[in-house]
Design goal:
This protein has helices spanning 28-31, 36-39, 48-56, 61-70, 92-111, 115-131, 140-147, 153-173, 177-201, 205-225, 232-248, 283-300, and strands at 2-6, 252-256, 260-265, 268-280. It is globular, with a radius of gyration of 18 Å. The termini are far apart. It is an alpha+beta fold. A hairpin with a 2-residue loop joins β3 (260-265) and β4.
């Protein structure tokens, strides 16, 4: 069982990618189960407010990494996407998607304090963000300096997520939501890949539940991507994600509502909704999710 904290009125971190740390994951009520007939009807018009609400209820790239580290799982560079081919991402589609991928990897490196590798990923992110004309929101000089100083890990993570937040906001405000959605998708895919690869070697029950929770997030993400159907690259991406979505469809998620309470957090009043989420997912389901996620992620980062 997972205790849910939803309706948190404190926007400190940029919120993306998969899973939450500890007991701070977003409630299913925030995402909502999406009916099959709605998703399959075709292109849907989704308001800017809806998109922003979805983004703000996903988790930070560092949160899944923090969960993994909290489970005493050792760091492994084999989970990371390579940066030596970043120059090969020449289209805005591949640049935006892999910007999200590297965002998750940067969070993973930050949590494990791998400062030398952090610089490589910061450089890759800067290259990709320049490629889609949002590099002005990425403070490369400051981040590189912080990465070289092991004492500034918190500042490094904060500025990293703040930079992503500014890029995302700019894209959505300038009618480039297709790239914003691609960044979110890259974050989600890489976060799911990280979770499933770690679970394959360290099958912890909490990590298994986090994988099952992605059923709700993926349903909503597919809705956003369907706004761009007709573009061959988006159509292919949707088809890939539908394979994982099909793997997740039989995962059962039951939410038991709890009583809200007001607590003080960092000097601010926060309303906490104490819901309990029960995730029912079999070993066979997890294995299929692991296999398909690995196949699709590796395909997408090589486009």
């Amino acid at each position: 069982m997972i205790k849910k904290f939803s309706y948190i009125l404190l926007g400190v971190l940029f919120i993306y990618a998969c899973g939450n740390k500890g007991g701070s994951s977003s409630s299913e009520g925030d995402f909502g189960a999406v009916p099959e007939d709605v998703i399959n009807e075709g292109v849907l018009v989704i308001s800017q407010e809806e998109m922003e609400g979805f983004v703000e209820n996903m988790s930070s790239p560092v949160e899944m990494a923090a969960l993994i580290k909290g489970l005493d799982v050792e760091f492994s560079s084999k989970y990371l996407a390579p940066t030596d081919n970043v120059e090969n991402f020449s289209t805005s589609f591949s640049q935006a998607f892999n910007l999200g991928v590297y965002g998750v990897d940067l969070g993973y490196l930050n949590i494990y304090n791998k400062t030398q590798s952090v610089i490589d990923y910061i450089s890759a992110i800067k290259t990709l963000s320049d490629g889609i004309d949002v590099g002005q929101f990425f403070d490369f000089t400051t981040l590189k300096r912080l990465a070289q100083n092991n004492q500034n890990l918190d500042s490094l993570m904060f500025i990293s997520v703040q930079s992503f937040n500014r890029m995302d906001r700019y894209l959505r405000q300038n009618n480039r939501s297709n790239l914003s959605v691609l960044i979110v998708t890259g974050l989600w895919v890489e976060g799911m890949y990280l979770a499933t690869q770690v679970y394959k070697e360290a099958p912890h029950p909490e990590l298994k539940e986090r994988i099952g929770e992605q059923k709700l997030i993926l349903d909503k993400l597919v809705l956003f991507l369907q706004n761009f159907k007709g573009d061959k690259q988006f159509d292919s991406l949707i088809a890939d994600l539908e394979l994982i979505r099909d793997d997740l469809k039989d995962v059962k998620i039951t939410v038991k509502k709890g009583e809200p309470e007001a607590i003080e957090q960092d000097g601010m009043l926060v309303i906490v909704q104490n819901d309990i989420s029960i995730i029912e997912i079999t070993d066979e389901q997890v294995q299929k999710i692991i296999d398909d996620t690995e196949k699709i992620r590796n395909k997408l980062i090589s486009l």
